[in-house]
Amino acid sequence: MTVALAISGLQKTYANGFRALKGIDLEVRQGDFFALLGPNGAGKSTVIRILCSLTAKTAGSVRIFGADIDRNFPLAKSFIGVAPQEFNASLFETPMQVVLNQAGYYGIRRPVAAARAEEDFARLGLWDKRNEQCRTLSGGMKRRLMIARALVHRPRILILDEPTAGLDVELRRLMWRFMTDINRRGTTLILTTHYLEEAESLCRSIAIIHRGELVVNTATRELLGRVDLETLVLELAAPLDQLPPSRFRLRRVDATTLEVDVRRETLLNAVFAELEQSAIRVIGMRNKTSRLESLFMGLVQGNEDSTRAAAAALSAAAGD
Amino acid sequence: MRVQLIALATIVRKEVTRFFRIWTQALVPAVITTTLYFVIFGNLIGRRIGEMEGFAYIDFIVPGLILMSVITASYTNVSSSFFSAKFQDFIEEILVSPTTNMVIIVGYVTGGVARGLCVGVLVTLVSLLFTELRVHNFMVLASTVFLTAVLFSLAGMINGIYARTFDDIALAPTFILTPLTYLGGVFYSIRLLPDFWQGVSLANPILYMINAFRHGFLGVSDISLWSSYALIFGAIVFLAWFCLHLLNRGHGIRT
Ligand SMILES: Nc1ncnc2c1ncn2[C@@H]1O[C@H](COP(=O)(O)OP(=O)(O)O)[C@@H](O)[C@H]1O
Ligand SMILES: [Mg+2]
Question: Total structural domains in chain B?
Fold first, then answer.
């Protein structure tokens, strides 16, 4: 297994004294599709800006395919391509000029760069706009231009900082397809997002960062496994004093409410058949939110208690 | 090495494309201003002034006016281009790449020199409408204008690195460059000044450049050529070092 990105003990204190990163340890395998998930202000962009030298780290080490950014930053930089969160190309240049110039900064000859740019513009649906000034591009087009620009030196790692924030559904789908495709062709992909579902459905590994600290760092499958157990809340037609014996994990919340933990593959018919036998009639049912989701919602809403509880529950689940 | 050369060519191309794109701001004003100088000081008033250092007044002021426009063009090209790159964040395109800080400096400075020389050539062409140019020593003339353009491109770059607002890049030209140029012997020989003011003038670096440049055209100078070259070289080395130091520290460009 080749390690694409190894971050250890990464800290950042900004000039104003704000501690944006408090010691991040992270490893991304080559070929991975990795999500760095976290609410606004968590420190995701700070991590990414350190990787590409736009922000100077305060402590810790970063290695990109073995190249330490303190020892050989030029080499490390040549391995990564970054599409930043905010548009940062000249508004008076055309997409073609932007991409060709970027290639030039990486020492790529213009004819080679032009061929790549044309290929990527076509794939990203920017072909028609390639010779228009950037100020005439829509938000979604600017986003795609930054991806084309990040790819022109054919980096081994593509890093996308919130690539889908604020995009409409159709464009978001296009972006997802594009990312999946790039990843399938062998590029390691790192994506930051504050959408849980996006990370869940696209990425193979997920790290959750909160207030400059990593709270979760694992494979998506494993993370979903931890929340594989779904909790259903059942509302009863008549009060119930005592639970009947059951094959299922039933809990009595109050006289007219039961909770049942079911695995994803469990047939709900079986649950209902059993309740039927015990003459328990259900008039309503809803999903209790998953632990991952409640963890994440806790983070996003800054609810310390629920965050801590959910994080503890998740680590406990990881243990069993 | 080849990578850095391609990066350098890219920056230069981008810079040159930029000032041709904005040619109405970048090239035309200098031509109009110096035309006015030629008309008013050269022709209208110059005839009454008579000779300066044995030359018709217009012939005496042409070199200084050319160099003045080169200085302003080089300086403002780099200061405003670098500042815009910072302001719109597209300096990040270069910063994330393996391009070295030295190449960034050489690239921007080459852009500034290119604009300075373009303006210089245009102004020289305009001057031919008013007088005949004589060339006393082409090497002196060419080397002085080139080195002066390098020097002020570096100075403009430092201004661009420090600038936080558009006002910051307008301040230095107004309060430092223009006064020093006007007092740097564009319009007179410092020998006309009282001793005290001659001494003060010698502290003005632009005086040395204008006199060396004028020497290239007319063969006369208030200053020895060698002290001019020494001063220009010294200033270039210092400014280049300082500029590199600022970029290495990430001043104004990295958080
Ligand atoms: N240049 C800066 N100076 C001071 N604080 C900053 C600076 N940039 C970011 N921050 C702060 O650091 C924290 C993390 O920011 P960021 O990495 O952009 O978060 P994210 O990308 O996860 O939304 C935020 O609280 C932000 O306000
Ligand atoms: Mg961010």
Answer: 1
